[in-house]
Design brief:
Number of helices: 16
Number of domains: 5
Number of strands: 39
Structural class: alpha+beta
CATH class of the largest domain: Alpha Beta
CATH topology of the largest domain: D-amino Acid Aminotransferase, Chain A, domain 1
Strand content: 25-35%
CATH architecture of the largest domain: 2-Layer Sandwich
Helix content: 10-25%
CATH superfamily of the largest domain: ATP-grasp fold, B domain
Radius of gyration: 27 Å
Distance between the termini: 56 Å
Length: 676
């Protein structure tokens, strides 16, 4: 099947995306001599990708539907800037058949596959049918036109539990539910259908047999407009949360040469059958017995393409541009070599103990690790920039290449220790925990359930700072108040009265005194309410590093080290020994009794309220679902923390809610039973 597609030389490339992927595409465009055009929403006016482009065009409001998903606005930007080609990046319109067709109808080159190929693979039901015709193994399942609950219940009985409910459209783990109990299937179908409709505009579902403890292995393909197709080996993307990838690597520790050849040939066969052009990815589930099954095809560049670039030495974006301009692939399959090992981490703005909830806010301090041989950092963040609620939670990718897997992992751990992100919670410490995990290090026991299996309930545990971190936070707050002309921070002489501050973090509270003395300071820390005695640390030789006073250096109990700080309103952000902390410094007059009353439900993140299940004066039981919120492409259900009657209902479906905003209150009435 060969699909027609506009292929010709071009000169100005519009990048219909934002953030790190827009910047990454610009790098290859500059290398090939293309002029680059950025597009931006009102939320991205000051973003790096806008600053770095040759031209930039505003395309609408912050919501994706008003900007990055607005096809006419993107095409208008192309006309206004003289662009003659469009690269969609990933996400947003990257796999939108109508967008690819509209680009070509406007006489522009679409840097991607033919629109018909996108359409064929954009629906999982149709994609599985096409792959079966191409003799590619597919997971047993149901993808029928009858979308009734009865049809799915019958199909699940034939397939056998456990089963996986999936949205037929889209990807990224949205609209996906694992069902082990037949009684839970109707609710899973309803939940998946709602999420799929909101995310992809289609509530069509499919059902598949759940493969237990599989690996997620994908094959990268490249195809030109002259009929040549090759594969570039595999990537292992098995470390996931909420069915979304967080660590990827190439090659896969579970794939040998024979399996790589078999999977690669299946992927090439699939691409040929589609008449595919450009870069694409065939995603497979690899079962423990070595059998593999087609899941879906991503008809675009992948987030994790960097690991394939690292081990093959090829620039995939460069080849996308060259193929789109009509060039022929000059790489023979037998010439593709896998050199060493590469691994990628997705640094995301998320609160891990709260269930990986996406976070928004201002990144008061952002210093990515310096790039060095074997280390690559892709990001689109500026220090002091806002992380808005409208887009994905990923803020950076850290990619390491080494002679072997151990070396790549070691480089990534070092990079995490140097990556300063203060002001918004991230998954930085969790990523380090994954890399340190002995099962991950051994590689053989990793599968798509790795995170839940290895970390489980411990994910909800909040880390507790040690005495040194508390001492540094208190001293940093004191240093910010000192009037020092130069970098040196000298204690007042003769010794002054102690300076005192209360620090809180989650449920912890510390009363700290900082006392200047000859040669340095004594810092005394008393944990509140623990009954433990005070800890005393000695700090000497303190000085600022840099004119912006974002970094402090000192000797603490004989160990000389430096920290990064990010002062905020009544807060002190601290990056100490690879760990980010956000200590609160409540004013002395603030009453702890002023906290929200028990039973008050607040927004766990800034986002949109999709659905409200209750009304004022309704009676609910503890654990009842009340509100569904959405932010950063993720839905989250809020449940009743106590039983009682709904009062102070401020939430409205379709409205935005800020983080920690009260949504409703439940007045506890133990004698009342929840209405059926």
């Amino acid at each position: 099947m060969i699909h027609s597609k506009l292929v010709r030389p071009f000169h100005t490339l519009l990048i219909a995306n934002r953030g790190e992927i827009a910047r990454r595409i610009m790098r290859s465009a500059r290398k090939l001599g293309y002029r680059s055009v950025a597009v931006y929403s009102d939320a991205d006016t000051d973003s790096l990708h806008v600053r770095e482009a040759d031209l930039a065009a505003r395309i609408g409001g912050p919501a994706p539907a008003d900007s990055y998903l607005n096809i006419e606005a993107v095409l208008a930007a192309a006309r206004a800037t003289g662009a003659d080609a469009v690269h969609p990046g990933y996400g947003f319109l990257a796999e939108n058949e109508a967008f690819a067709a509209a680009v070509e109808q406007a006489g522009l080159v679409f840097v991607g596959p033919p629109a018909a190929a996108i359409g064929a693979m954009g629906n999982k039901a149709r994609a599985k049918a096409a792959m079966s015709r191409a003799d590619v193994p597919c997971i047993p399942g149901y993808q029928g036109a009858d979308q009734s609950i009865d049809a799915f219940v019958r199909a699940a009985g034939d397939i056998g539990f456990p089963v996986m409910v999936k949205a037929a459209a889209g990807g990224g783990g949205r609209g996906m539910r694992l069902v082990r109990d037949p009684a839970a299937l109707p609710a899973a179908l309803a939940s998946a259908r709602s999420e799929a409709a909101a995310a992809f505009g289609s509530d069509e579902l499919i059902l598949e047999k759940a493969i237990e403890r599989p690996r997620h292995v994908e094959i990268q393909v490249l195809a030109d407009s002259h009929g040549h197709v090759i594969h570039l080996g595999e990537r292992d993307c098995s470390v996931q949360r909420r069915h979304q990838k967080i660590i990827e690597e190439a090659p896969s520790p579970a794939v040998d040469d024979a399996l790589r050849a078999s999977m690669g040939q299946a992927a090439v066969r699939s691409a040929r059958a589609l008449g595919y052009q450009g870069a694409g990815t065939m995603e497979f589930l690899l079962a423990p017995d070595g059998s593999y099954y087609f899941m879906e095809m991503n008809t675009r560049l992948q987030v994790e393409h960097a690991v394939t670039e690292a081990v093959t030495g090829l620039d995939l974006v460069e080849w996308q541009l060259r193929v789109a301009a009509g060039e022929m692939l000059d790489i023979a399959q037998e010439a593709v070599r896998i050199d060493g090992h590469a691994m990628e981490l997705r640094l995301t703005a998320e609160d891990v103990p709260a269930g990986f909830l996406p976070q928004t806010g201002v990144m008061r301090r952002w210093r990515p690790p310096l790039e060095m041989p074997g280390l690559r950092i892709d990001h689109g963040l500026t220090e002091g920039g806002a992380i808005p609620p409208y887009y994905d939670s990923m803020i950076a990718k850290l990619v390491a290449h080494g002679r072997n897997r151990e070396e790549a992992c070691r480089k990534l751990l070092r990079a995490l220790e140097q990556c300063v992100a203060l002001g918004v919670p991230t998954n930085q410490s969790f990523l380090a925990d994954c890399l340190h995990d002995p099962v991950f290090a051994a590689a053989s026991g990793v599968h798509t359930g790795f995170v839940e299996e290895r970390f489980g309930a411990s994910l909800a545990a909040r880390p507790i700072p040690d005495a040194a971190a508390v001492a540094w936070a208190a001293f940093a707050a004191h240093a910010c108040m000192m009037d020092s002309a130069g970098p040196e921070l000298a204690p007042p002489l003769p010794a002054s009265r102690p300076w005192r501050v209360a620090l809180t973090l989650d449920a912890g509270r510390w009363d700290v005194s900082v006392t200047g003395r000859a040669g340095g300071w004594w810092i005394e820390i008393t944990p509140a309410g623990s009954g433990a005695g005070p800890a005393r640390l000695e700090l000497r030789g303190a000085r600022w590093q840099g004119l912006d006073r974002s970094r402090l250096e000192a000797e603490v109990d004989g160990v000389r080290e430096s920290i990064w700080i990010a002062p905020g309103p009544d807060a002190m952000g601290l990056f100490h020994r690879g760990q980010a902390w956000e200590f609160q410094m409540p004013p002395a007059h603030r009453s702890r009794a002023g906290a929200l009353a028990s039973g008050t439900l607040t927004a766990p993140f800034t986002g949109r309220i999709l659905h409200l299940s209750v009304a004022a004066d309704d009676h609910v039981s503890e654990g009842d679902p009340l509100i569904i919120m959405e932010a950063m492409k993720m839905e989250h259900t809020l449940y009743a923390p106590v039983a009682g009657r709904i009062t102070d209902l401020a939430a409205q479906a379709g409205s935005q809610a800020a983080k920690d905003q009260p949504l409703l209150r439940i007045v506890q009435e133990p004698a009342l039973q929840a209405t059926p």
